[in-house]
Write a structure and sequence with these properties.
The protein has about 80 residues and is mainly alpha-helical. It has one domain. Helices cover about 60% and strands about 0% of the residues.
Length: about 80
């Protein structure tokens, strides 16, 4: 009757909407953190890529921040 799929196409649309919301929730803080440390904000998009997101966190945690060098930290 429903070809073994309980939800049909509704589940597919809901999944992508949910993933978009989670992506936005993750990218916005990462974007702001990158900007405040003196790196370009677009680096925050890297938080969406598995394994690269861990590399980004370690990079930000242990690298010398350009904002500290310039003395112009955006707060």
């Amino acid at each position: 009757m429903m070809d073994g799929n309980m939800f049909g196409n509704t589940m597919w649309a809901g999944h992508w909407l949910w993933m978009l919301v989670i992506g936005i929730i993750a990218v916005i803080p990462a974007w702001r953190i990158c900007q405040r440390t003196g790196y370009p904000g677009w680096m925050g998009i890297l938080i969406l890529i598995p394994v690269v997101n861990l590399a980004l966190l370690y990079f930000i945690a242990f690298a010398d921040w350009p904002a500290d060098k310039a003395g112009t930290r955006n707060e």
